[in-house]
Amino acid sequence: MYELLKNLIPKTLIKKNESTIRQLLSFFYLGNRFQCTVCEFKMSKFITLKKGDKLCPSCGSLSRTRRLWVFLKPKLKNAKILHFSPSKSIKSRLESVTNINYSTTDYAGEFEAMKRLNIEAIDEPDNQYDIIICYHVLEHIENDLKAMQELYRITKPDGICIIQTPFKTGDIYEDSSFRTEKERLLHFGQKDHVRIYSSDGLINRLSAVGFHSTKKTFKEAPNNRNGFSSEECIIIAKKPI
């Protein structure tokens, strides 16, 4: 059903009428076997995308978004939060929370956001945010060390930056001579990526700018109720007091 709608309806029309389309689509997935952690919709199954990820038919959350919400939920009270390139599902969920100060930013204009901050030169004062969400952003950034320095600068002491990128084993793989979309797709897996991190390599770079970082890994059964990835890693970068 999902792929059929994608093929039949122009992308611009889908984007304009996304809420209505999702309401109609979710009717065909009603059930009790699975549940989205973000919108709490109960369903017979998730939509399985071409690359294997599981999409909520009601809010459009991906497996990593649902995991992020579970991690974030107990940390939200009175928090000041900055969210880079926010996915629509978790942005909507966070906007509904009343006891937080939530801001969004997207420099490229690909996501709906309140601000347009350059992560390599963030136009924000020092020590501003309790929580910064930086999901699938740093692999796009040419000068990632500068971006990490900026993230550190605007994080409050004892605040955290929650980071995820695609990960590989071994060392970070990058080569600045790969400039074309074709080269980057071949070497980094996506035409607008400039590297592939390893989790340890990313932690080392975050440590170089002052963060104290830990790695949280998760393993789930393939048919877990909330449609999480069977294996996932999140980096928690904390600014020391």
Please render the helix and strand layout as text.
Blueprint: H1 2-8, H2 11-16, H3 18-27, E1 30-35, E2 42-43, E3 47-48, E4 54-55, H4 63-72, E5 80-84, H5 88-95, E6 101-105, E7 129-135, H6 144-154, E8 155-164, E9 167-168, E10 173-174, H7 181-188, E11 195-198, H8 199-208, E12 212-219, E13 231-238
Parallel strand pairs: 5-6, 5-7, 7-8, 9-11
Antiparallel strand pairs: 1-2, 3-4, 8-13, 10-11, 12-13
Instruction: Supply the number of helical segments.
Output: 8
Low-confidence stretches: none
CATH superfamily of the largest domain: Vaccinia Virus protein VP39
Name the strands of the widest sheet in spatial order. 6-5-7-8-13-12
Instruction: Determine the N-to-C terminus distance.
Output: 51 Å
Residue-averaged pLDDT? 92
Looking at the structure, what is the overall shape? globular
What can you tell me about this protein's structure?
- 29% of the residues lie in helices and 26% in strands.
- With 241 residues, it is an alpha/beta fold.
- The chain folds into two domains: 2-55, no CATH class; 63-238, Vaccinia Virus protein VP39 (Rossmann fold), CATH 3.40.50.150.
- The strands form four sheets. Strands 6-5-7-8-13-12 form a six-stranded mixed sheet, with helices on both faces. A three-stranded mixed sheet has the order 9-11-10. A two-stranded antiparallel ribbon has the order 1-2.
- Helix 5 (88-95) links the parallel strand 5 (80-84) and strand 6 (101-105).
- The longest helix has 11 residues, at 144-154.
- It is globular, with a radius of gyration of 18 Å.
- The N and C termini lie far apart (51 Å).
- The mean pLDDT is 92.
